[in-house]
Amino acid sequence: MSEHVLDAKGLNCPLPILKAKKMLKSVPKGEILVVYATDPGSVADFAAFCNQTGNELVESSQDGDVYVFKIKHTADA
Amino acid sequence: MTESNGAETAINPKSLSIIVTKGSLDWAYPPFILATTAAALDYEVTLFFTFYGLQLVKKKLDPKFTVLGNAAMEMPMFGTHIAMPNFMAMIPGVDAIAGAMMKKMIKEKGVASLEELREAAILSDVRMIACQMTVDLFEYKREDLIDEIELGGAATYFEVASKCHINMFI
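The joint structure predicted for all components is written out below.
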């Protein structure tokens, strides 16, 4: 299983979400996309994104100034 | 599903329409941010461009900025916030400078450019309709507008809006 990583550091709303959505399309179902972001708004937004799209947010954490989101591709679309 | 007049009234809970009436640099952002984000959340999205909103679907995307009549606008400068009084807009070049400052700020803060957002909207199948009446009123030609745009009128808008769960006016 290859690692799927999206570096969205330095990007502001709504770019991290748009890029994550685009990248998820190439992540096989059941695998995990790791997103790194620095926008504090992305904490609430990635939770909402996963709720709305039916993907699973398996981890939302912070490492210094960087937010880390692990999204399991569970949605059909 | 309720049928009142024989028309199809099924509403998709994940659908959004926005009437876009403004075409300045600052006001161009809300409709494109909301439309692209909604599309990323699997919403069916329609933008209806009318009056000055048509600026945002011209092939050459170059919305202008003015400090005039915006009492709430202040720029972060010299560690504080500087308001732009109305009379400043009378001075030739002030609006252009303020617009350039705004674009610089947008870039530095990692905010998407309008071109990027519009491209993302097109790629995520956001439906875009230009109001035929205002296209004629301002004498725009079909070829002035991006290829992805459809032309339609108020009736077209209502046909869309009546099936949308969220309808906005910006």
